Amino acid sequence: MCEWQRLRTRINHDWLKNEYLKNLDGLIIQIKSSQSIENKLCRELQAYLKRWSERHGEIEKLLNTAEKGLSPRTLFEKEPLIRCTRKNKDWLAPLIHGLWLSRHDIRKWVKETETILTEANQSHALLQSYYSVTQDELQILKTLEIFSDLVGDLSRQISKFPGKVITV
Amino acid sequence: MNTNSVLGYDHARKEFSKKLREANIEIVDTLKDLRFATVALVHPSGDIKKTEWNELLKECDTDSIIIRTSSQGRHQKTHRITTNGVIVLQLQISYYEINGLQLKEIIEEIRKPGIAKAIVKGEISPRLAKYFSIIKNTNVIYALTILCQGYLAIRSDCQVQKKDGPIHDALEKMQWSRFLNSDISKEFLNPDIFNENEILRNSTDLDNQNTDYWKPVREWMNEKDAATEWSFLDGNRIVGAWKTCKTRYLIKVINGIKTDIEHTPLVAEVFLELQQLLNGENNV
Fold first, then answer.
1. What is the pLDDT of residue A158?
2. Residues B201 and B182 in one domain
3. Contact B143 A164 (CB under 8 A)
4. How many CB atoms neighbour CB B181 within 10 A?
5. What is the pLDDT of residue B238?
6. Could you tell me which residues come within 8 angstroms of residue A108 by beta carbon, excluding any fewer than 6 positions away?
7. Domain residue spans in chain A?
8. Residue A10 CA from chain centroid, whole number
9. Rg of the Cα trace of chain A?
10. Predicted pLDDT of residue B284
């Protein structure tokens, strides 16, 4: 497992998918069943909104480092290719990175994922404003559902990135 | 409940359930219900307690097969047979990378006598290799695929135009032409490949033991745990028998042992062999 993959597991698998998304879904069920956002649920919602503000940057970082972290060029930092001479590395490493990029459209995947992240951030901002300004419960619930769907899409999209460094 | 059936269970009741439905596999509500399955496909998740798993394994019949899946793939987790003879296999790729048709293919193949037990022993049929091959100690494999690509790239002139032969096929698999014609090549292709082509050809020559190009692999194989790497290559049966596979010849050549094989086609064939092996593994 490469470093990027470890980071992805920590952010996406452990937090986003198995903690944050589950909590959001649980909150939606509770709000629907109580038919109003009581104080306790209000505090929970506030906590989840704050959590997103604190951690969405980690997802951005994950996406920004995907090309570098998944590139076969990283193998030049490990045995046995770490033994390549500087001269060989200078032409071979970028060549291998370029060939890999043209075979696996990582940049396109990153862009598509960034679009979902932007939509999730917009939805989060909207939710934040409904929560702090209008307090409209119906709007809050509706936007919360949209936000939760986007977080789910985001998690699924991140899961689709290659699980390891690919050289061919 | 049918006692000779294929059953599926998805703890999250989301993505993997979709794949199971695509493959027309009956989905059960609890992990315990899988005890009736001949072949069970399961996406567990961390919420399942170890005791629940152990209960299930105890209640399954001998020779029943449990295939565990996950969103990440279960890289390098070993397959096993429990004390009461239940075969537990770990799908090595994420279920996101599989569709219903592939699930059907897996089940069809795995139900053939002896196939699941063979997987536990590491003898995996080519049809199932991409799903169950556990590829460890891949340092030399990855390094060789990289060195082969560089070697072929600087010998690529005119080879793309030829319509057959291993060099043409390898360059095609590398997508060399596509790369040359893309914007990406402007960003990453070092002009030395063309400007200093003759020098680079000499410096990567397999005949010359003084060149540095193949030295990383030569040194690594000789000084590190060559035995592990060799047994790994053997265990994975690269495109048929190890004794005849081209990678073995290339390693001999890298180590200065003369063979009567022409080098550039050999490197191309090695790349094709390793590409086939790793594509099964990657399946992206």
1. 95
2. yes
3. no
4. 10
5. 44
6. none
7. 3-71+106-159
8. 11
9. 20
10. 34
pTM: 0.76
Closest CA to B172 of B160, B188, B186: B160
ipTM above 0.90, yes or no: no
State the pLDDT at residue B112. Answer: 93
Domain that holds residue B213: 139-282
Give the tokens for residue B279: 């594509």
Helix (H, G, I), strand (E, B) or coil at B12: coil
CA distance B170 to chain A (A): 11
| pLDDT averaged per 10 residues in sequence order, chain B, 284 residues | 78 89 94 94 82 91 93 75 94 87 94 92 79 73 94 82 84 94 91 85 84 88 61 49 69 80 91 81 42
How many domains does chain B divide into? 2
Question: Does residue B160 contact residue B152 with C-beta atoms inside 8 Å?
Answer: no
Residues β-bridged to residue B7: B26, B40
**Residue B87 shares a structural domain with residue B167:** no
Instruction: Tally helices (H) and strands (E) across chain A.
Output: 7, 0
Q: Which helix (H) or strand (E) holds B192?
A: helix B192-195
CB contacts, 8 Å: A162 with chain B: 282, 284
Mode of pairing for the β-strands spanning B87-90 and B80-81: antiparallel
Best interface-test mutation with A: which of B138, B188, B200, B217 has the largest number of A CBs within 10 A?
B188
B118 and B148 part of one domain: no
Closest to B232 measured CA to CA, from B141, B144, B131: B141
